[in-house]
Amino acid sequence: MNTPVSATVVSPQLRDPAWVSRLFWLLAAAVLLAPALVITEFKPWTLFEPETIKSTKRFISDFFPPKIETEFLLLVMREAWRTVAIATAGMALALIIAVPLAFISTSAISISALPGRMHALPFVLRQATRWLLIVLRSVPELVWALVFVRVVGLGPTAGVLAIALTYGGMLGKVYGEILESDETHATHALLRNGAGRLQAFFYGLLPQSAPELTSYTVYRWECAIRSSAVLGFVGAGGLGQQMDNSMKMFQGSEVATMLIAFMLLVAVADQASAWLRKMLA
Amino acid sequence: MRIAIEGLAARHPAAASGSLPALKPLTLTITPGEQLAIIGPSGAGKTTLLHALACALKPATGRLLLDDIDPWKLPVSQLQTLRGQLFLAPQAPPLPPRQRVITAVLAGRLPRQSLLASMASLFYPSHIPEAQAALEKFGLAGKLWERVDRLSGGERQRVGLARALVSSASLWLVDEPLSSLDPSRAAQAIDTLTRSAREHGATLITSLHQVDVAKRFQRIIGLRDGALQFDLPSTEVTHERLAALYAQHEEELLGATANGEENTAENPHIAPLYCR
Known about the structure:
B: alpha/beta, Rossmann fold, six-stranded mixed sheet, three-stranded antiparallel sheet, globular
């Protein structure tokens, strides 16, 4: 005979024991999120007030139709290409910063750590390098761009330098983490057999982690393209700078064209990076 | 290389300093060019002994003398130069999966190569004939340009051993070289190792699970629970001694030759997560 199941009385064994903790975490999330909404003055209903709707309509209607004069399109293409160039040049400089620092910060190629504990001096050096990378990457590229616009003047150079510094820190830190987390068996075997650090790096560690490192680099390059467009708004050249100019002139149709160009650019970069990463897999 | 160990005990680097050492105080001398096998049940301290001899593990007590020099008294850079004289082949072949076989073998030359030469060799491999000859001796002649991840487990193990042949080490420490080889490959591999070590004038020390293979060495060391049970010419290693060495582990003594199939199992890859 089946056990009768009453609607009100459920035997304790049949009650989900995980229920209480699930409820707790749900409530905890709500309690933690509520102050965030207050601090950010999150009031979505203001979007739907008549005054807001009117100005939104005006702004958006300016966008149509997008401007498609040949001369303007050529300008947009040139600026889009400049944006890619800023991102690529910035990434190249970032690699020059990131690769040696990541190499220095990796304890997987420590010789003194082979039989046990790393010596004090290399330990301090590795930690210091890690901190340097963290400092580099914790300053947003927008801030670096504002600094460099003042130092080297308006134009792409400021954008390149801003991306180089922030992305140098970002790449260096993540490269270090990738190298650190990978299987070290091959690398340690080489070090134990008397190979140098750089030799062990190139013959053991790098072939192990190369796909992951490259894939992350390509992904970051794509991010740099998006970010270099934003940097243009503070005068660091490229599509963003043109967009900023047009916005200040209330040329909605120009902004629309550039937005479309930018979306196309990001889509192409996304495809290119997906294709590259698939090739490496 | 002349090896002397005096009351040497060692424990795994991760082990607590108060814990029982994996290798209890041990005294041995090994003359240059000697070939010897270390046998014993799992957990006997065979790998620990090899690591201690390779200067991969610092002795907890006692000392190691290589050609009458205590390597642990040397500065780090000189110790690293000395390690170039010691070739340690771990049981799991230490080969990056995406590396080509040629590069993996030539990595054995790194200690005697300048950084520049080893970088150039990544661009275009130097000493291709040497690598090919080493592979041929292990029956891998056709695998020179293959990628390591295309090889079976047994083939990888033999590539790891071929590395010894291109190194200039005078002490070869080989950990379980036959663990994933079938019996005929195992016989070939051990023949190649012993003959090549003789040709190179290198001392060969290898840990083995296969007692019948160990009998082909002049000298056999029996380890059990981290302690020396016997150190004898192989002719004097009797059934009684083996039975005592493997007491309670008889399946390892009997099944030693049975588990020699080529295994192709891959290590599971653990995908790490990062803050990006």
